[in-house]
Structure formats: structure tokens, C-alpha cells
Amino acid sequence: MPIHPEGYRPYRGARTPSGRSWLVVTAAGVRSVVGNRLFLGLMLIAWAPFLIRAVQIYASVNFPQASFLDISAATFRDFLSQQSLWVFIITVWVVAGLIANDMRSNALQVYLSKPMTRAEYVGGKLGILFVFLMCVTWVPAILLLVTQVLLSGSVAFLAANLYLIPAITVASLVLVVVSSFTILALSSFSKSARFVAVTYAGLFFFTQAVFGVVRAGTGSTTLSWLSVTASVDQITDVAFRQPPRFETPLGASVAAVAVLVALAVWILRWRVRAVEVVS
Questions:
Q1: Domain range annotation of the chain
Q2: What is the mean pLDDT of the chain?
Q3: For the chain, which terminus, N or C, has the lower number of CB atoms within 10 Å?
Q4: Confidence band of 10 (pLDDT split at 50, 70, 90)
């Protein structure tokens, strides 16, 4: 019987290009969430406002007497503002335990002991939430535009309001980015998904309450940047070329959102790096 040497032999299998590890994390996370029937039911309910708006478009196109239902840029702005509730619920459901559960089970060390960088790990977790949140913000809003064109049989509205496409994109991204980075940063602080969810809700409600107290005391909305929700709403109004609902300069609202996201990025770098295993 021949005896083969057991020396070094080069790897002859397929090599995956670097920088794609986050896709594995995202794909696995999406599959695990989609397997939950309760979550799928929640996603269907989150599309109910789309159906209501579609009926509004149908009525405005086919019934001249229903002029009060006419479609405008404000219609799409209001739709995205309404979807913020579902963004909040889905964010808490999906992300609260994304990092917290990994820390509790010590899976984070396993992730980072593989050929995966911190950025790829965080990017993979963010990708999970981006998929679901864009499915209840950007996707239905764009489909509403398509529905308007199909039901009216004309591209006149779209041609006159082409800016709605970038406006929908910007407003959706701002809402999704703020929600995703904030709760993912909070998730890195605790091993309890329930605690993360409560803290996330408290952050948004507390900042809104602070702004409400200041508004009641001063009679001015100049300090709306104190509220995360109000800052996002202010940016959304400007993106859709609608009169801003607050007196705060756009720059202040953008700066408030940018600072929050930057702080979340810093926290993620600090918390994830703290348990990284160097291979």
C-alpha cells in the first residue's frame, strides 16, 4: 500500500472574494426572521396603508367629485410619516437581539475569529434591518407612484413631480439609517433583547417629550432638533418640498441626525472591538 506524504498541500477549493462575509450574515438573518409567521403577519399589516392609499388614488382618478382625494407630493410625505410607526415596531422586533443575543451566547467571538472584519459583521446585521425597513418605506412608496401612473393611464403626474423619486429615497434612507444604527448600537450594550427594546423606545419617547416640554414653555419649535422623530420629520418635509412643520433650520435637524448616527457608529466600533479575536 503506498504511503502518501502528509506535508503541506495548497488549498484547491473555491475561494470566496474578500469583503462579502456580510452577505452571509444578512442572508442568514433574513431567513431566520422570515421563518416567523407572526412577523410575516406584521409585515402584511404594515402594507395596509399602501392599500388605503391605492384606493385613494383610484378614487381621485375615476371620480371627479372626489377632488379632496387628489394626489400630491404631500400624499407621499404623509404616507412615509405614517410608516414610521411600522418602522419602529419592525426595528424593535428584528434588531433588539441581533448583537445582544450574540453576546449572550458568545457567538460574537466566533464571528470575529473567522475571516470577517468588524465592519462586515456590523454591515451584515444592518443589512438584515435594511431589507425589512425598506420593504415598508421605499418599496411601497415607489409602488404608489407606479400605481398612480397605471391607474391614471398617464405619466403627466410623474413627469411634473420627478423629484418625488429622490425625495422618497432620501426620506426612506434617513428614517431607516437612524433607526438601524441607533438600535444596533443599543443592542451592543446589553445581553438582553428586552432591555434593548425598552431602551430604544425610551430614547425616542424621551427626546420627543423633552421637545414637547420646551415647545410648551417657549411657544417655539426652534428646538425640534432635540427630538429624533422631529428631526427626521423636518428633513422629510424639506425633501418633499413641503412647508417645514417646525421653525428649526434644516442644517440643525441634519446635524442632530448626523451626530446621533456618528455616536452609534463610535459605540459599535468600541463595543464590537472589545471582544474581537485576532486570528
A1: 21-61+68-273
A2: 85
A3: N
A4: low
Q: How many residues does the chain have?
A: 279
Nearest Cα residue to 79 out of 132, 130, 142: 142
CA distances from 149 to 4, 141, 143, 158, 161 (A): 70, 13, 10, 7, 12
Run of H or E residues at 97: none
Give the residue-averaged pLDDT of 168-194: 89
pLDDT band at residue 240 using 50, 70 and 90 as cut-offs? very high
pLDDT of residue 144: 93
- The answer for residues whose C-beta is within 8 angstroms of residue 203's C-beta and 6 or more apart is 182, 186, 228
As to burial, measured by CB atoms within 10 angstroms (0-12 exposed, 13-18 middle, 19+ buried), residue 158 is middle
How far is 83 from 144, CA to CA, in rounded Å?
Answer: 13
**Distance separating alpha carbons of residues 56 and 231, to the nearest angstrom:** 28
Q: Quick check: 262 pLDDT over 90?
A: yes
- CA distance readout (Å), 134 to 40, 127, 171, 221, 227: 15, 10, 11, 30, 23
Q: Is pLDDT above 90 for 146?
A: yes
The C-alpha atoms of residue 140 and residue 43 are separated, in whole angstroms, by: 12
Spatial separation of the C-alpha atoms in residues 145 and 157, rounded to whole Å: 9
Q: Please give the Cα distance from 69 to 106 (Å, whole number).
A: 54
**For 201, left (φ over 0), alpha (ψ -120 to 50), or beta?**
alpha
What is the arithmetic mean of pLDDT over 63-88?
A: 85
One-letter identity of residue 194: R
Residue 208's alpha-carbon distances to 93, 151, 264, in angstroms, are: 21, 39, 19
Nine-digit cell at 271?
463595543
Helix and strand numbers (H, E) in the chain are: 13, 0
Q: What percent of the chain has pLDDT above 90? A: 46
